[in-house]
Give the backbone structure.
Amino acid sequence: MLLVGSLAMPGCAEAAEPKPEAVQGFDRYVQLTEQRMQTELRPGAAFLWVDGLPEARRNSVYEQLQRGEVVSGRIKTRDSSGELRTPAALIHHWLGTVFIPGASLEQVLTLLEDYDHHAEYFGPEVAKSKTLEHTGNDFKVYLRLARRKIVTVVLDSEYEVHYEQLDAARAQSRSYSTRIAEVEHAGDPREVQLRSGDDHGFLWRLNSYWRFFETGRGVYVQCEAVSLTRDIPTGLSWLIAPFIESIPKESLEFTLRSTRATVLGKILNASK
């Protein structure tokens, strides 16, 4: 659920750490994005991204969702002031939706809040998972993320997550990374977490925003993710750019597809 980030290729880039201006730019981007999200919670507004589409496109997307497909796309928050800058860093912003037929809102939330078993539900991209703290609707969680594309990148990460029930049919959650550390030699005696500035900048920040809507026939699940990574090193665009562009989309779709499959599997087992 918390994998939607971008990973560069180790060995192709020197160590890096985010510049203060890049972090400030990311924070500004998040602030503007969350302002837009607040308007979507107003009465009469489109709660799900698909409901804000033109009619023909909306009907087409709903048909895809009913067929069990994940619909995703890249989006961008604009800053009219023109002050948003992230030197030597990139912001990645993706959104995806899936429909889980026959599911209830409670079933979906119960699964996603079960962080101790996320490695089971979302493996192999989540290699380890654990609830660190849990109070009411607030969680602090640990996830070891692993992504292989030519090479394997492993990250130890921690997040603060808050869930909110909006009404009987709608809920949302927000997740903010509080620590992300690259791991070298994962799984063997030489395993070590790299210090900030010694890593490769594969993933510096990751925010995930989820929305859930129960219709009586099932649940629509939407995930929107904003991440910060290092920029593409000069001269390596031809090699790294396709990798950076594909990882957020692939991870988002994998997470939503796994959520759907796991919930459906639990429903099937409960009916036996």
About this structure: The helical segments are 20-39, 55-66, 105-112, 118-121, 237-271.
